[in-house]
Amino acid sequence: MPSGLARSEIDLHAWGARRVLQGAADSVAVSLRDLIRGDPAAASKASGQLESSVVVQGSVFDAAEPVVDVLTAALSDDLPDPAMRAVIGLLLKIVSGS
To answer: DSSP for 33-57?
Structure first.
């Protein structure tokens, strides 16, 4: 279960002021919470949602910056393996822009 650093980081950001492919990034916080929650199915679904909105076909959207903050905070949390793999995979996609 996450220690709370990533959850605290999620709460620091004004997601509605950030942009994703679909417009305002309001749903990003929910997806990030699902990603780190510890449920493998939820992590997989959340990872897909984030990939299809934050970084899409080489375009990295404005919300990627705080998403990276949350994902790097999650690296210090005690996440189950599926969630940690999803966090690392999403970080790689964002930093490579793919």
So the answer is: HHHHSS-HHHHHHHHHHHHTTTEET
Query: 35 with 50: CB under 8 angstroms?
Result: yes
Range list of H helices, the chain: 5-11, 28-36, 40-51, 64-74, 81-96
Residue recorded with tokens 């970084």: 55
Strand partners, 19: 24
Residue 18, C-beta contacts closer than 8 angstroms, at least 6 positions apart: 24, 25, 28, 61, 62, 63, 65, 66
| Bridge partners of residue 41, in order along the sequence | none
Low-confidence ranges of the chain (pLDDT < 50): 1-2
pTM reported for the whole predicted model: 0.91
Q: How far apart are CA 51 and CA 89, in angstroms?
A: 10
